[in-house]
Amino acid sequence: MSQTQSSTGPILTTDGIPLKVSLKKAERINKIRAFLLVSPLLIFILVTFLVPIGDMLARSIDDRQINTVFPKTFEVYKKWDRKGLPSEEVYKTMFFELKNSEGYSVGKASTRMNYSKSGWKSLLKKSKRKFKKIEEGPYKEQMIAIDKKWADPEYWLALGQMVDPTTMGYYLNAVDLKYDSSKNIVQQKENRRIYNKTWIKTFKVSILVTLFCLLLGYPISYLLATLPMKYSNLLMICVLLPFWTSLLVRTVAWMVMLQQKGVLNNLLVMSNLIADENRFQLMYNQTAVVIVMTQILLPFMVLPLYSVMKTISPTYMRAALNLGASPMHAFYKIYMPNSVPGVSAGCLLVFIIAIGYYITPELVGGKDGQMVGNWIAYHLKTTLNWGLCAALGAILLAMMTVLYWAYNKIVGIENIKLG
Amino acid sequence: MSQKDSFVKFEKVDKSYDGEILVVKDLNLDVPKGEFLTMLGPSGSGKTTVLMMLAGFETPTSGEIYLDGNPISSIPPNKRGIGMVFQNYALFPHMTVKENLAFPLEVRKMQKSEIDEKVGNALAMVELQDFGNRMPLQLSGGQQQRVALARSLVFEPRLVLMDEPLGALDKNLREQMQYEIKHIHEKIGITVVYVTHDQSEALTMSNRIAVFNDGKIQQISSPDVLYEKPNSSFVAQFIGENNQLKGKVKSINGENCIVTTESGDDIHALKVNVNNNGDGSLVSLRPERVAINSSENFENNFDAKVKELIYLGDHIRSRVEICGNDQFIVKIPNSYKGANLKEGATVKLSWKASDSRALDLN
To answer: Could you give the 3-state DSSP secondary structure of residue B273?
Structure first.
């Protein structure tokens, strides 16, 4: 190193190119190669995952459906002062747009209008049929003659929520709120408040499942990590065995186990632990969901725990004992802190899977055990309210992101170890 | 044996893990207070098991271990008050250096001020005052080693065990740490039982060395005696470099004997553990005790053929063929007086009868 650099100038390579430029050039080919290696997966994920998620998020606030069916009506509607009934012009535009529209698009629009004020759907259906007989104006009185609802300002006011192309209505709906006719946020009617209860239930079940998985998984992982290889392998197979069985088979097996005349209750009655008429209600409720999900998700707790515990040298415990700590104290002060990365990884994993779980609550949950995932499926398949599905899903996604962020702040994501 | 002479006492200790093989056989060992005793042996010789029994992590299958006159087999490791330095240091990775050192003091429920003082002293002893707030993984191997040493001493145990503590260090650092440990031992006068398979480490640090093989102590004595006067061919081979000439005892004459090699040469040797004429024997001889082309009067004089010369800087290691053995090593100092050998040349090698020890054949 006889050459000295001038303190200001950039460092040069032997042939006079600035070192940074030269390095970039040399690294470029590696970067391109790396990109080519990941690109198939990247494209796959983009097309099948990120785009649909983006579409879903868009759907949760999208409110253009109705504007495309009744565009002119909304033009004139905007001029209305929202007092009393709208003018004849509004009635007239609505009349022609409804009369000339296709039944299919009216159906979709009326579904959306029904979310704001129930009754719209039947009103439009009935009106479209009867509008054929009306030949000339004025239309306002004739429409009211067909159905009195046309004279109810509540219906017209409800349309006001749909003027904008976007809406928070689905999100409000997902947490038991809604817009009233003057677009203030109010609570749903008492008998229609279902989602907040479901959210709380979902959290409760997820937390319980995570907790039970930890309680059951920690000792078994400890045993796995400390046993000699030949025993631990066998035990590991036992732990992983559920992975090799179909989820449905396992869930149905649990149904056989837990029902009132099932294996577990029969055993308890046979051994005279409970009376025949006092059989436990273990099926079609939250208890069943927690029991079955704990069993199903246990491996997701054991694997990260095991892989972390495997790396904790047994000499740490020996050293702690040698330094005078009692076995309990040594475990608490030395072993547990070192197993935290596994605990947090396992808990996060189990919680994430549990919070969006669908199949188990569906099969064993009954009415009491339904979670958010079940409502999403319900709206997706039965009511076709995809906006609400999207809103529920987006809230789930947001919760996970917040949880992940909090976890990263508290424990640090680099401490996660899955294997 | 007085109380002082047996601070640690193993009495007829056997240890078996599987009920079939004894890894420690009938061990009787006394360690006086303040001694630095090294247990030296190849891996699998049982030395680490002995240490683990002393620390309390293994129980003797039979026999008893006494510490300061009290049997300790039934005392759990956390109540023994014995310090230990582990092979890979076993520093708690989630605690700082200070917290590591404070751990044994905290479990003893000492006052905060007292803990701080002792931790400070311990850090000063190993010259790591500025590293108290580092995490163990932020330290170099040698520093971690010193922290482990300080941690084993900070609660002032009566006895410190060290299980190959320098095994993970590179050569220079290892030698430096050997002296450091030796000086700390001399300064605080604590009893140390040290396990290693590195004979130079054992020779450097110990007051006494117990050479283990096959679950038994082969020889226990001070380093110089062990090197100069090994009493079995295992010890002679294990400690230092050694030439061995195989033969049969021809005659015994008091302290001395004559061993005839297969090539028919008679070697005058010291009778160590051969008893009868006709017994097989390995004659052991240190390379540095062989004179080359010397005019002095030695009992043993043989012609040897130089097979190989290896230049090692301070000396030249030459392999020669003598008495039918072509693995015979002679060290020639690289000095003005050193003999100038050529490969293939024939030289005269001589040594004293008292330097060649007739040992058992094993």
So the answer is: coil
Coil, helix or strand for A358? coil
Separation between Cα atoms, residue B94 and residue B88, nearest integer Å: 16
Q: For residue range A69-121, list pLDDT tens digits in order.
A: 888 888 888 888 888 788 888 888 888 888 888 878 888 888 888 888 888 88
Chain A contact present for B344, CB below 8 A: no
* pLDDT tens column, B307-359: 888 888 888 888 999 888 888 998 888 877 666 778 888 888 899 888 889 88
The percent of residues in chain A predicted with pLDDT above 90, rounded, is 32
Which helix (H) or strand (E) is B310 found in, with range? strand B300-311
pLDDT above 70 covers a percentage of chain B that reads: 98
Does residue B92 belong to the interface with chain A, where contact is any CB pair within 8 Å? yes
Minimal Cα distance from B93: which residue of A?
Answer: A338
Looking at chain B, list the stretches that DSSP marks H as alpha helix, in order from N- to C-terminal side. 47-55, 97-107, 112-125, 141-153, 171-188, 199-205, 223-228, 233-238
Q: What ranges do the domains of chain A cover?
A: 20-59, 65-167, 196-246+280-415
Q: Is B77 within 8 Å of A337 when comparing Cβ atoms?
A: no
Closest chain B residue to the Cα of A334, Cα to Cα: B92
CB-based contacts of A169: which residues, under 8 Å, 6+ apart? A63, A115, A116, A161, A178, A179, A387
Dihedral angle computed from the Cα positions of residues B131, B133, B137 and B138, in that order, rounded to the nearest 10 degrees: -60
| Mean pLDDT score across all residues of chain B | 89
C-alpha to C-alpha distances, A319 to B56, B85, B90, nearest whole angstrom: 11, 8, 6
pTM, to two decimals: 0.78
Q: Which of B48, B54, B75, B86 to mutate to test the interface with A (most CBs of A within 10 A)?
A: B86
CA of A415 to nearest chain B CA: how many angstroms apart? 12
Which amino acid type is present at position B329? I
What gap in Å lies between CA A113 and CA A122, rounded to an integer?
11
Backbone φ and ψ of B249, nearest 5°: -70, 125
B4-233, CATH topology level: Rossmann fold (3.40.50)
Q: At B37, is the secondary structure helix, strand, or coil?
A: strand
Any idea where the domains of chain B sit in the sequence? 4-233, 241-359
List the alpha helices (DSSP H) in A46-191.
51-59, 65-69, 71-77, 88-100, 103-116, 120-131, 139-146, 153-159, 169-174
Phi, psi at A375, each rounded to 5°? -70, -40
ipTM comes to 0.82
Distance of residue B348 Cα from the nearest chain A Cα, in angstroms: 53
Cβ(B313)–Cβ(B334) below 8 Å: yes
CB-side neighbour CA atoms (13 Å) of B289: 21
Residue B283: which of B266, B295, B297 has the closest Cα?
B266
The letter for the amino acid at B115 is: I
Q: What is the mean pLDDT of residues A364-389?
A: 90
pLDDT at residue number B311 = 87
| Token pair for A293 | 């999900």
Alpha carbon of B78: minimum distance to chain A alpha carbons (Å): 4
Query: Which class does domain A196-246+280-415 fall in?
Result: mainly alpha
CATH of span B241-359: 2.40.50.140
Supply the DSSP symbol for A85: S
Tokens of B327: 């693995």
Task: Give the count of beta carbons closer than 10 Å to the beta carbon of residue B181.
Answer: 24
- Residue B42: what are its φ and ψ, rounded to 5°? -70, 165
* Separation of alpha carbons A184 and A193, rounded Å: 17
Cα A373 to Cα A18, A203, A206, distances in angstroms? 57, 12, 12
Residue B67 · residue B40 · CB < 8 Å? no
Closest CA to B193 of B203, B204, B180, B208: B208
- CB contact under 8 Å between A329 and B107, yes or no, is yes
